[in-house]
Write a structure and sequence with these properties.
single chain; 10 helices; six-stranded mixed β-sheet; eight-stranded mixed β-sheet; alpha+beta; 20 strands; 2 domains; 376 residues; FAD/NAD(P)-binding domain; D-Amino Acid Oxidase, Chain A, domain 2
């Protein structure tokens, strides 16, 4: 018998949907609430490493993800010169195992749809436009009041509600993400035939210029710069700024730039990062995913670490017959050191770039790849 009978999951992103799927499949009554009005999510593309794909297979969505995404096993390094010269082609470690690709790119809203539909199929009750407004812990139960004035009692609350987590604050964890010093321009457009994997350009006016195929006909492209306040730009200025910044990059970027015509397909985000240094639970409430840790996307491990959180948490709750300190100690031991190492490595890459320091980037990437190749 599971350690919990009913659970509230706050947040319908990767971590929340994964936790809902696994717990509902294990016989737990799950309510998943998300403040957004529907499954449509803002965003462009997402890069999923093999260890993320391993969890997606556990969730029984791998066939759908593979059909809608774009898988590849190599990484290209290119020069910021007039030809976009290919400097190296590296074979990535298949961190999810030999039967899964090293990397898969995907349209982020498509992944959200697949996961939330799967949560509903597994038996979770999914409610959009719903958010908690009060949370009171009473012994082995948590009473939650929602914005529709309804109140329910749960054995456990799982806060998977992102960087600005309401749950994290509600349970008294005083930690917020901090600035990294970089910002990223992103766009989502038609995939040129020449793009069949991620290529990274280091140098030029941006710290990193890159792209990732996200489906048979789509691609996600990005430029990382020193963080600036871009909030005052009009849509036309936003588009013009990304086009101008991309002008130093060639090869496939020349085709991408020709397609940069729609301001609604361009967005800018500042990098932030944090990791909760200690247990991620308080009583019968726990935070996972970006609510517990976040890292800049320099290692493309954000979604993977969130999915791993959900997998480990669900495993322990379905394995044990009670929520005990031993359960929480094991969860902390299995997730905190691993997530901390990934976050710190992602930040180290940022520091090398910001300081114009030639660090051992291949060595760092190899170390993290070998770390996450071991199941969480």
């Amino acid at each position: 018998m599971p350690a919990v009978r009913n659970v509230l999951v706050v947040g319908g992103g990767a971590a929340g949907a994964a936790a809902a799927i696994l717990l509902a499949e294990g016989g737990v009554a799950v309510d998943l609430v998300d403040a957004k009005p529907d499954v449509a999510a803002l965003g462009s593309g997402i890069t999923l490493q093999g260890n993320a794909l391993r969890v997606l297979r556990e969730l029984d969505v791998w066939d759908q993800v593979r059909a809608e995404g774009y898988a590849f096993d190599t990484l290209g390094l290119r020069a910021p010169d007039p030809a976009g010269t290919l400097l190296a082609e590296l074979t990535d470690l298949r961190t999810g195992g030999p039967d899964l690709p090293a990397t898969l790119g995907m349209y982020r809203p498509a992944l959200a749809r697949i996961l939330l539909e799967r949560a509903g199929e597994a038996g979770a009750t999914v409610r959009f436009g719903t958010r908690p407004e009060a949370l009171v812990q009473e012994g082995d139960a948590v009473t939650v009041t929602f914005n529709d004035h309804t109140t329910r009692r749960y054995d456990l609350v799982v806060g998977a509600d992102g960087l600005r987590s309401w749950t994290r604050r509600a349970i008294g964890i005083d930690a917020e993400p901090g600035p990294v010093g970089m910002g990223i321009w992103r766009t989502f457009t038609r995939r040129p035939e020449s793009i069949t994997r991620t290529d990274l350009f280091y140098g030029g006016p941006a710290y990193i210029a890159g792209y990732c195929p996200t489906g048979p006909d789509s691609v996600y492209a990005y430029l990382v710069e020193g963080v600036r306040d871009r909030s005052g730009l009009s849509p036309a200025q936003t588009l013009a700024t990304m086009r101008e910044l991309s002008g130093a990059y060639h090869g496939p970027w020349d085709e991408l730039r020709e397609q940069l015509t729609d301001p609604s397909r361009v967005n800018y985000t500042a990098f932030e990062s944090h990791v909760l240094d200690g247990p991620w639970h308080r009583g019968r409430a726990v935070v996972i995913g970006d609510a517990a840790h976040s890292c800049p996307p320099t290692l493309a491990q954000g979604a993977a670490q969130a999915l791993e959180d959900a997998s480990v948490l669900a495993e322990l709750l379905l394995r044990d017959d009670a929520v005990t300190e031993d359960l929480w100690s094991e969860f902390t031991a299995r997730r905190l050191p691993r997530a901390t190492e990934v976050v710190e490595a992602s930040l180290q890459l940022c520091r090398w770039l910001l300081d114009h320091e030639r660090g051992d980037v291949p060595g760092l990437m190899a170390r993290i790849s070998h770390l996450v190749a071991e199941p969480a």
